[in-house]
Design goal:
This protein has helices at 20-25, 53-60, 75-84, 88-91, 108-114, 152-163, 181-193, 239-242, 244-256, 264-291, 324-327, 354-361, 376-379, 411-414, 428-431, 475-491, and strands spanning 28-34, 63-65, 68-69, 118-123, 136-141, 144-145, 201-206, 298-304, 331-334, 349-350, 392-399, 433-440, 443-448, 453-457. It has 517 residues and is of the alpha/beta class. The strands form three sheets. The protein has an eight-stranded mixed sheet, sandwiched between helices. Strands 11-12-13-14 form a four-stranded antiparallel sheet, with helices on one face. A two-stranded parallel ribbon has the order 3-10. Helix 7 packs parallel to helix 10 (264-291). The radius of gyration is 22 Å and the shape is globular. The chain starts with 19 loop residues before the first helix and ends in a 26-residue tail after the last helix.
């Protein structure tokens, strides 16, 4: 990786020393990531529609979490956190436009290469990662496959995706499921896996869906008609109570996507269809692993980088705040050694926990600077400190002072909009400043740089519409949450660079952050 900000980069040559016997016994690892998937639209979470029945069944064969969180509600910061095991304040990647600034010692692919794993990235990257760090590279994006090897039908479909300009298609997509990107990605992934024989592999299988442009071919387009969808828990009328940023984003969406209010239920319907299409391709991937004789020795991690409003507060996509629909992500682990749990694990976990867990699976040291905790004891049914996973933190914002409408609203000059209708919901007005979020049990705290606090009881108020911060009845809980958030902030201060001499740097074998004392 040609990145001057990376402290150390070890190539994959060292991994060649691994013995053939060790290679054959090490589990393969596939990290299946979706883009912008809302966690609560799953049957296992109590959702009344079967959006992803195969993913639900796979989750119950392993361990799954309903208190898993992204590090940030934007793709590049979140994905960089997953690959490095570091929070955004440590990676320095706080927006979708700072991938090259990623700051770390070693990432997941460095460790896998050192351990003799074959490595692959199939799908959407949107990070600092380059082809030089993998053995196989098959990139896809929201506009299609980034390849000159496409046939004419694939090219035509990718042109169709581009014509949607990151928004939505209100009619069934052309070409059938074989043209959909996840289908083509499964073909590429299984084709590469079939060449590996007994070499263990790490694959990042990163689907660009169900991110906008929202589109679905038949039969998925018609699977969840608008009138069959459960009602939304909130509406555009709730924006004012959520704060001026929500009102501002609503005004921007109305300009950038004219008429989307009238089509909101259709967009929701298409989103549900995209989930089912993804589910069927996950099934194809897993069945293909079985056909290759590799399924029994493969750990499959399924998660998303962040969520989507899917109609809440009258919004689509993402943009403002740290609401559950954006911050909470699906996360499930299945494979050899992982305990089967029909019910969700009660631990609070983060995207940064994936990399150190992978290190422990590979029997590799956790690199310096990694801030996540290994989940391997939790996944294998061993003892672990309950306090360590009794809360979780996340971040939002690129920093600086908060922009408001009083600073201007020239959306085109800023780049949030173009001459044609369209809106980048991650813009100066929605992303400026800094916020922190803490989830602990049924409680959630959001606190921003200007001293504004938001405290919610998610069991009673899942849409986060009644702010209890500053109320006398919740004063004790508020103090407890603020104290815990402060502890997270201190414990996740970037340890890099480590002391160069004399001092011994103490870490936990599983990279736990908090002392039990």
């Amino acid at each position: 990786m040609n990145n001057p900000r990376v402290i150390t980069l070890l190539g994959s040559v060292a991994g060649l020393a691994a013995t053939a016997a060790a290679q054959q016994t090490r589990p393969n690892i596939i990290i299946v990531m979706t883009d912008q998937q809302r966690a609560d639209l799953l049957g296992r979470e109590g959702y009344p529609l079967e959006t992803m029945p195969f993913a639900d069944s796979l989750a119950r064969q392993g361990t799954w979490f309903d208190r898993a969180y992204t590090t940030a509600p934007a793709s590049t910061p979140a994905r960089t956190s997953m690959l490095t095991g570091r929070f955004t304040k440590a990676t320095h990647v706080k927006s979708n436009h700072n991938a090259v600034d990623a700051f770390f010692v070693k990432d997941m692919f460095d460790v896998a290469n050192e351990q003799g794993y074959a490595t692959a990235m199939v799908g959407k990257n949107h990070t600092y990662l380059t082809p030089q760090k993998t053995d196989y590279w098959s990139p896809f994006g929201h506009g299609g496959q980034n390849s000159q090897q496409k046939d004419s039908t694939e090219t035509a479909f990718d042109n169709y995706l581009g014509s949607l300009r990151m928004y939505a298609g209100y009619d069934p997509s052309p070409g059938g499921v074989e043209m959909q990107l996840p289908y083509r990605m499964v073909d590429d992934a299984l084709g590469w896996i079939s060449t590996l024989e007994d070499t263990p592999f790490l694959m990042w299988f990163s689907m660009p869906e169900p991110h906008n442009p929202y589109q679905a071919c038949e039969p998925y387009y018609s699977m969840f008609p608008p009138q069959s969808l459960p009602p939304k828990r909130s509406s555009a009328a709730d924006r004012e109570g959520k704060g001026p940023r929500y009102v501002h984003l609503g005004e921007m969406m109305a300009i950038g996507h004219p008429g989307y209010d009238e089509n909101l239920d259709r967009i929701r319907s298409v989103y549900h269809g995209m989930l089912r299409m993804i589910d069927d391709q996950l099934r194809r991937l897993v069945n293909g692993l079985g056909d290759e004789g590799k399924l029994d020795n493969t750990i499959i991690v399924y998660l998303s980088d962040h969520g989507d409003y899917v109609g809440e507060y009258g919004f689509i996509k993402k943009g403002v705040g740290m609401d559950e629909v954006l911050m909470r992500i699906p996360m499930q682990w299945t494979g050899p050694g992982i305990v089967a749990n029909a019910a969700p694990h009660d631990a609070h976990v983060s995207m940064v926990d994936i990399f150190p867990t992978v290190c422990e699976i590979m029997d590799a040291p956790i690199p310096a600077g990694v801030q996540g905790r290994s989940l391997w004891p939790l996944l294998t049914g061993r003892e672990y400190p309950r306090r360590e996973f009794s809360s979780v933190m996340a971040e939002q914002g690129y920093g600086g002072m908060v922009y408001t409408k009083e600073d201007g609203d020239d959306y085109k000059a800023e780049g949030a909009m173009s001459d044609r209708p369209g809106l980048d919901c991650l813009n100066t007005w929605t992303q400026s400043g800094s916020m922190r979020m803490l989830r602990s049990g049924e409680w959630k705290l959001v606190y921003d740089m200007d001293g504004n606090g938001y405290l919610y009881n998610l069991a009673e108020d899942p849409s986060e519409l009644r702010n209890l911060f500053g109320t006398e009845a919740c004063a004790a809980k508020q103090g407890e949450m603020v104290e815990t958030l402060l502890r997270w902030e201190i414990s996740t201060a970037d340890p890099l660079p480590l002391p160069r001499n004399r001092y011994r740097f103490k870490t936990n074998p599983h990279n736990y952050l908090f002392s039990e004392k």
